[in-house]
Amino acid sequence: MTDHVLAASASTVHWGYWDAARPPVLRIASGDSVTIDTLSGEPADLPADEGLILPEHRAVLAGTPRGSGPHLLTGPIWVDGAEPGDVLQVTISDIRLRQDWGWNVIEPLLGTLPEDFPQRRHLIIPLDRAAGVARLPWGSVVPLKPFFGNFGVAPPPHYGRITSIIPREHGGNMDNKDLGAGCTVYFPVFNRGALFSAGDGHAAQGDGEVCLSAIETSLRGTFELVVRKDLHLGFPRAETATHLIALGMHEDLDDAVRQALRNMIAWLGERNGLAAQDAYTLCSIAADLHVTQMVDINKGAHCMLPKSVLPPGPLAANAA
Question: Which residues, other chains included, contact 23 with Cβ-Cβ below 8 Å and sequence gap of 6+?
């Protein structure tokens, strides 16, 4: 295994879009790890104090063509051997903050309650890395739990260039706070090389991300990327040391919930040989349904099942 480093620069960052036609900025072997530097914030999101801003941030904004979304994504990374129909197994081994501040914004016509909050409000929020907390202007102290809101593989090539805002089957803007350090995410591959990118760092977020944004910040993450030819998926799924996590994404939140639940039921059949009716009952008894986010057009839901309640039968050899 080789360890790689990918810095954020005008040549390695794509701003506001996913596109299978974007050339890779790094090529690695399956099983290699890569430490990726990311940035967060368009010009209006940055603090007035230039001394707080990472040296490359302004240069990236000045030198990177903007797509239709706001997210700065570092990549894509080509993984040798990945072919359409395979799965890219992404293990997040470490996530660290790159700066001592984050930002949060409410925007007109966006968020969960746009009719209640019609004015823009932008906050710069201090991050205390030593204490592991964010200190909000009204006195609240919030624990930091960093994760990448927007990461995945390039979408199907016939989609062309798509916005970074809407999460889809390739991953993208999932905004799932449970996909942090120690998590493994499985992405279906739609292009040769898989073409993995990451960005949209969050220092802390509640399920729902209701006002539109979390505490957005610049992160450094270390990812191990493995091509799995023994798996075949149509939609991402994830697991931690303690839980299976099935995802759902749809404009209608009810449909996103149904998708997450159906994906979990199918997974339990593949993984543990559980009959669908038994899996449905187990989910009703032991799984938790979370509203992932309400603000990315395709709303998100995820179903979390503790591994401790899985039946003792043998794990399928080719199941995640």
Answer: none
Nearest Cα neighbor of 40 from 151, 180, 195 is 151
78, pLDDT greater than 90: yes
pLDDT by residue (tens digit) across 137-164? Answer: 999 999 999 999 999 999 999 999 999 9
Q: What is the domain class of 242-309 according to CATH?
A: alpha beta
Phi-psi sector, 57: left (phi>0), alpha (psi -120 to 50), beta: alpha
Torsion angle defined by CA atoms of residues 179, 246, 296 and 188, in that order, rounded to the nearest 10 degrees: 90
pLDDT at 316 over 70: no
Look at residue 63 and tell me whether its pLDDT is greater than 60.
Answer: yes
CB atoms within 10 A of CB 131: 11
Give CA–CA dist 208/98, Å, rounded: 25
Long-range own/partner contacts, residues 53-60 (CB < 8 A, 24 or more apart): 53/99, 54/98, 54/99, 54/218, 56/7, 56/8, 56/9, 57/218, 59/9, 59/10, 60/8, 60/9, 60/10, 60/13, 60/15
Q: What single-letter amino acid sits at 258?
A: R
What torsion, rounded to 10 degrees, do the Cα atoms 154, 155, 161, 165 define? -90
Q: What 3-state DSSP class applies to 50?
A: helix
3-98+148-209+219-228 homologous superfamily? Acetamidase/Formamidase-like domains (2.60.120.580)
The pLDDT of residue 314 is above 70? no
The pair of three-digit structure tokens given for residue 168, joined into one six-digit string: 């889809």
pTM over 0.90: yes
C-alpha span between 53 and 140 (Å, rounded): 24
Domain chopping of the chain, boundaries: 3-98+148-209+219-228, 242-309
CB 112 within 8 A of CB 130: no
